[in-house]
From TrEMBL:
The keyword Transport applies. Keywords: Amino-acid transport, ATP-binding, Nucleotide-binding, Transport. GO terms for molecular function: ATP binding; ATP hydrolysis activity; branched-chain amino acid transmembrane transporter activity. Signal peptide: none annotated. Pfam families: ABC_tran (PF00005). This is Unannotated protein. Residues 6-234 form the ABC transporter domain.
Length: 236
């Protein structure tokens, strides 16, 4: 029924002599929510950055029926793929409005979308003129997600949405993601809070030192002994 939206085929990423990702094959279907798990340094952020063309990779990336391997990030974003980077990466001295506008494609008429977004995130409307660096962590995460939505993505890649946030704020961020999912938006979520994301996602991949070690339905991984051992019992 549902069509494939994104595939990576034999995706590999190196930083000089360091092989960060080795031959990963990922698939995301339209409207699907996929979790990408793994300990620190497993290659999760590198994978997301390579998919949107921010770093070089080997192998192939296909999105919405097009080969986007090696394509410039601007083109990839215009096709409907958008990244919420690890650590939010807002411009702290710019206002919320200015940060959001940076997510809109050049020359695009995005006023309607802007209004739409602010209706969904009323807290941002109150703070449009505030400089982003003075927002709380949860508000900054909302701005980072809203900025990524300004390009009207079909697939949102989100790198550690709950990083550094108190549990109740994480609830609010996931509530936002849940609302967005209802609009048909597909997502790949990199998350250290494994059980939380496995309750939210449809499917999951777990990376370990650059390779995909496990994949399956999120509901199955939630009860998997291997996942428990790696994420709940061990040093993590
Ligand atoms: N710019 C870089 N230059 C050199 N090595 C890098 C660079 N970025 C990442 N690496 C290395 O690549 C590997 C994968 O890093 P990556 O950031 O993708 O991991 P991650 O799974 O996102 O980890 P974390 O959970 O800590 O965010 C690590 O060994 C890291 O040290
Ligand atoms: Mg990372």
């Amino acid at each position: 029924m549902s069509n494939t939206l994104l595939t990576t085929t034999d995706l590999s990423i190196s930083y000089g002599a360091v092989k960060a990702v080795r031959g990963s094959n990922l698939e995301v279907k339209e409207g699907e929510v996929v979790a990408l798990l793994g300990p620190n340094g497993a290659g999760k952020s590198s994978t997301l950055r390579a998919i949107v063309g921010l770093i070089k990779s080997q192998g192939a990336v296909n999105f919405a029926g097009q080969d986007i391997t090696g394509a410039p990030t601007e083109r990839i974003v215009s096709l409907g793929l958008s990244l919420v980077p690890e650590g939010r990466r807002l411009f702290p001295h710019l206002t919320v409005r200015e940060n959001l506008m940076l997510g809109a494609p050049r020359k695009a008429k995005s006023d309607d979308l802007f209004d739409d977004l602010l209706n969904r995130l009323p807290i941002l409307r109150e703070r449009l003129q505030q400089v982003s660096g003075t927002l709380s962590g949860g508000e900054q995460q909302q701005v980072a997600i809203a900025r990524a939505l300004m390009s009207r993505p079909k697939l949102l890649l989100i790198d550690e949405p709950s990083l550094g946030l108190a549990p109740t704020i994480v609830d609010a961020v996931y509530q936002l993601l849940s609302d967005l999912r209802k609009t048909g938006l597909a997502m790949v979520i990199v998350e250290q809070e494994v059980m939380r994301v496995l309750k939210f996602a449809d499917r999951a991949y777990a990376m370990s030192t650059g390779e995909i070690a496990l994949e399956g339905l999120a509901a199955d991984l939630r009860t998997s002994d291997e996942v428990k051992k790696v994420y709940l019992g061990g040093a993590e």
